[in-house]
Specification:
Blueprint (H helix, E strand, L loop, with lengths): L18 H16 L4 H8 L3 E6 L2 E5 L7 E6 L2 E5 L4 H14 L4 E5 L5 H4 L2 H11 L5 E5 L1 H11 L1 H11 L16 E3 L2 E6 L2 E8 L6 E6 L4 E5 L19 H14 L3 E4 L5 E2 L1 H27 L4 H7 L4 H4 L11 H13 L14 H12 L2 H13 L3 H14 L4 H17 L3 H18 L2
Parallel strand pairs: 4-5, 5-6, 6-7, 11-12
Antiparallel strand pairs: 1-2, 2-3, 3-4, 8-9, 9-10, 10-11, 12-13
This protein binds zinc ion.
Zinc ion binds next to helix 4.
Length: 443
């Protein structure tokens, strides 16, 4: 099997090995790159465990967009793996690697501590046990350890939030991934079995992130700094994310001038020009949002003014690898406000607010009843003014929580909100309350 780097810089899927499969994947890549194909089509194409030949002795394995990819490097000392996939996908991923190379795993590098990148370590350790060889050494940034400790402290909360976001009631957040054996702070240079690795720390989606540079091959494994989507730096129910430092990390990657860019999620990007374009566009988009947000904050604006005043460059948001389909620029502005300015939004009523039910009852009384609030909410929603409608519907329901008709209106209003919402995250969290309202309306 040889690496397949055509003149126009397109990679290949070698799973199954046929020329037709390669040509088909190259065609699919071009359609993803142009924006003609949705990522779901790629997920479908790689679902049985697809291997992309990245360079001689380097492959990346994918099983879906939604789980982190795994890159394997063959060295004289054994395999080095970048990430492990999640517990569920690791078996299929590891089997694909084993079809390519049967030697023991020497080292595993976690690009960060998220479970879709670390959860497969158990499968890799079990493979070592079965062979009677020592488990691989795990290397990561120092803060991965702290993250794994935090997962123990907040397992209940993470279970609730993850269950909400993916609509899996009773979901239990997996804990107990093996912590790294060796950690580093800023950079780490390694030579393993004759192969050079340079690890760089940056903060972006997480505080514990690493990107990996193979200098002799000019291959960059970006981890989740590149995910074929708008940067996931604003998730409403997750710990702090770091938009400005994310942009800095992308600039550092760009300066390395990679020939091949292996993203944390989505297909491998071949060719220096395309790699540079993806890194530059991502950095430019984030820099724009950071600059605009800080400019308004530095003038003393309230959160509301910042949210209304910042706009993401439309041409960048339209790029197939930056579309805000998962996270949303508005959520990212919230996260930056929180990072630089704490939780107070600049509205004095929100510093020590009245109980929500008390405020709602007062407004319902002034409006002439909760029914009138609900009726106005319904009219606004039908007119497409869903943001405003949601406020009134929530006030009506908070004033009279057990009114099935009001809950029915609330469910309808939230349904309209979901229809207009473009981000998966936004849709998912709105749906939590839409389901609640629907259930209450039927009691
Ligand atoms: Zn990930």
């Amino acid at each position: 099997m040889t690496a397949h780097l055509t003149r126009d810089g397109i990679g290949c899927v070698v799973s199954g090995g046929s020329q037709e499969a390669r040509v088909e994947h190259d065609r699919l890549f071009e359609r993803l790159w142009s924006g003609a194909a949705p990522m779901e089509e790629w997920t479908q194409a790689v679902s049985s465990g697809a291997i992309t030949a990245v360079a001689d002795n380097v492959v990346t394995v994918h099983t879906t967009y939604f789980c982190g990819s795994v890159t394997a490097i063959r060295t004289a000392a054994g395999l080095v793996l970048i990430d492990t996939a999640n517990a569920e996908r690791a078996g299929k991923t590891f089997a694909a690697i084993r079809r390519w190379d049967a030697s023991p795993v020497h080292t595993v590098i976690y690009t960060h501590g998220h479970i879709d990148h670390t959860g497969g370590i158990g499968v890799i350790d079990a493979d070592a046990r079965a062979r009677g060889v020592p488990p691989p050494r795990v290397i990561a940034h120092r803060d991965v350890r702290r993250r794994l400790e935090r997962y123990l402290a907040t397992q209940g909360f993470n279970s609730v939030v993850q269950g909400q976001q993916f609509n899996q009631p009773n979901y239990i957040y997996p804990v107990g991934q093996r912590a790294p054996d060796e950690v580093y702070d800023d950079t780490l240079s390694l030579t393993i079995g004759g192969e050079r690795f340079e690890l760089f720390h940056g903060r972006g989606e997480t505080d514990d992130a690493t990107f990996v540079w193979l200098p002799e091959r000019r291959v960059l494994a970006s981890g989740d700094f590149v995910i074929w989507m708008f940067p996931n730096a604003g998730n409403p129910r997750k710990v702090q994310r770091y938009a400005a430092e994310w942009a800095e990390a992308l600039r550092r990657m760009q300066a390395l001038k990679p020939e091949v860019l292996v993203p944390g999620h989505g297909p491998v990007i071949f060719g220096a020009a395309r790699a540079a374009q993806v890194l530059d566009d991502g950095a430019t988009l984030l820099e724009s949002l950071v600059t605009q947000t800080l400019a308004l904050m530095n003038r003393g604006s309230t959160l509301d003014e910042v949210l209304r005043g910042v706009s993401a460059p439309a041409a960048l948001l339209a790029k197939p690898y930056l579309r805000p389909q998962y996270d949303d620029p508005e959520f990212l502005v919230h996260a930056m406000w929180h990072l630089y300015g704490g939780w107070f939004d600049g509205n004095p009523a929100h510093l020590k607010p009245a109980p929500a039910a008390e405020l709602a009852a007062e407004l319902a009384m002034l409006a002439g009843g909760a029914d009138r609030l609900a009726a106005r909410a319904a009219a606004l929603a039908e007119a497409g003014r869903t943001r405003l409608a949601a406020h009134l519907a929530e006030f009506a329901a908070a004033a009279v929580p057990h009114d099935t008709a009001i809950q029915g209106t609330r469910a309808m209003v939230l349904e309209r909100c979901i229809e207009r919402e473009t981000s998966l995250m936004g849709k998912a969290f709105l749906a939590v309350y839409q389901r609640d309202a629907k259930a209450r309306s039927e009691r």
